[in-house]
Amino acid sequence: MIARKRTSPVTKSEKPPTEHKPTIASAEDFRLAPPKLRVIFVISSLLCSLYLYLLCFHYNLIPVAARYVLRRNMFGFDINKRGTPQGDVKVPESLGIVVGIVFLIVAIIFQFFNFTEDSLWLVEYNAALASICFMILLGFVDDVLDVPWRVKLLLPSFATLPLLMAYAGHTTIVIPKPLVSYVGLEILDLGRIYKLYMALLAVFCTNSINIHAGLNGLEIGQTVVIAAAILIHNVMQIGASVDTEFRQAHAFSIYLTQPLMATSLAMLAYNWYPSAVFVGDTYTVFAGMTMAVAGILGHFSETLLIFFLPQVLNFLLSLPQLAGIVKCPRHRLPKFDPATGLLTGTKDGTLVNVYLRIFGRKSEKSLCIHLLVFQALACALCFLLRHFLAGWYK
């Protein structure tokens, strides 16, 4: 049996273990862990499935509603196709009521997933939905009773009352830096004048969508473009800010704009050239009010007005006829030539006619695409202005 050798109690002094220093990898040696694409794919699929379900549900609801409005003799004829077989087809009108109803259902159910009972934003959210619902009702009344356009200008001012009464946000404006030396203030409190400004902004946005129309797909197309710009702007502002209230205001705007864009895309499939349905004033006033509310409660009304640059130009061109200085016909549409299928600009003061007078005759589909591209360029101009004027203007 082999005995184990005992160690001597006196051992040689051992050197203390050297401290391990972590090695710092250079930029060339750095390797990023592979991304978890599966997680992103699963989450995106769940979100997209809900989004696509909304589109499909609304998409299938439109033909059902179209049959009902035809039974009530709510139809019209496409004036821009007069003299052709398509010009004699009865086109269902006022289908904007479908967009509005689906929007309200989605927006109301959304409260269950986002807001709590003591949420400070819940009151303003419900007030915003009340104003939008009020505007949908007034728009549908206009489609049924054919309200005179002078009365139509005042309808949004009544619809904004729930929002104005419940608004508890700030009423101050930031004076542009180049004007601070002249005004003597950096921040100016407008008080009730600010609420008057909110009401006027809602009136403008609502009616500007309504009067910049007359082509298949133009009303919904411009709404989709502006709504996309609003969503991009909100996401950019949320990512660039650390202020909780500021981020919540822009998130609030997203809550209203996202369902507007989803329902509008479903309707655009039926309203694009050649249009199978007409959205009527119900949709135009609803879309304008929704974007106005999103801009007001998101606190980016100046940016919203630049997004509406084509609508501002159309309003300025229409002002002589709207004020009664120049005779205003019922339909200020371009002249259609059945032989060529092209539209010719008339002397009426609209952006559609001015565009045709400058760039020549075009088909209805081509003209609508050109105007939507112009709308997108106006939104891109807004982003460029915000980028180059940041730090100098405000």
* Rg from Cα: 29 Å
Using the alpha-carbon principal axes, give the shape. globular
Pattern of helices and strands: HEEHHHHHEHEHHHHHHEEHH
Distance between the termini: 93 Å
Secondary structure class reads mainly alpha
* Beta strands, count: 6
Mean pLDDT: 85
Count of DSSP-assigned helices: 15
The portion of residues forming beta strands comes to: under 5%
Low-pLDDT stretches: 1-14
Helix fraction, binned, reads: 55-70%
Give the strand line-up of the largest sheet: 1-2
Main beta sheet, described?
2 strands, antiparallel
Pfam family, one: Glycos_transf_4
Transmembrane segments: 39-62, 94-113, 120-141, 153-175, 196-214, 220-240, 252-273, 285-309, 367-389
Protein name: (rape) hypothetical protein
Keywords: Membrane, Transferase, Transmembrane, Transmembrane helix
What does this structure look like?
The protein has 15 helices and six strands. The protein has helices at 37-71, 96-114, 121-145, 149-152, 155-159, 161-166, 177-183, 192-211, 218-240, 244-271, 280-297, 301-307, 309-322, 351-359, 364-389; strands at 75-76, 91-92, 172-174, 187-189, 335-337, 342-344. The protein is 62% helix and 4% strand. The protein has a domain at 51-299. It has a two-stranded antiparallel ribbon with strand order 1-2. The chain has a two-stranded antiparallel ribbon with strand order 3-4. Residues 12-21 have a biased composition (Basic and acidic residues).
